[in-house]
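Protein in question kept underneath.
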Amino acid sequence: LLAAADVTGQLSLWSLPDLEQTATWPGDGAPLLCGALSPGGQYLATSCRSGTARLWKLANRTGRELPFVVPTFTRGFAFSPDGNRLVSVGDDAVIRVWDVPSATPQRVLRPHHGRLWSAGISPDETTLAVACADGSIEFRNFSKMTMQKVRIHESPPGWAATAVDSSGGRV
């Protein structure tokens, strides 16, 4: 499954590998900043330039939305490998951990002093990597939900994205 959006914010779903468009809906009517599909393609998390972040339930392919109330631009999402939790990060320097089925926050952490660009969760759900606008990447213990800072890797400003490979061996 592939999700895409155009400049008006219209969302589209495409099947893979044949690239057949299977659904479209209007979205929030503003260009998207980021998006993420849950493992198995049950949910789509989106953030748009209007400041709205949403969790869309895709089971019925009509784009029924579940509201995410986020008071700032959300720049990155990461679903847990089991699809039950979602991490959102953004301009307010806050890490939010959401329960996906209920679309309710489990944790709200204010660990950083600047924008957060993206997040990645390891396949074994033990590590959360967060790319920060100041050039650091923070590694946190995600499995225990303690969110203790494990290590910070410093680099020149410019980290814009993090990703964890499917084996969990690389960030």
Remarks:
- The chain has a mean pLDDT of 78.
- The radius of gyration is 16 Å.
- The CA atoms of residues 42 and 58 lie 5 Å apart.
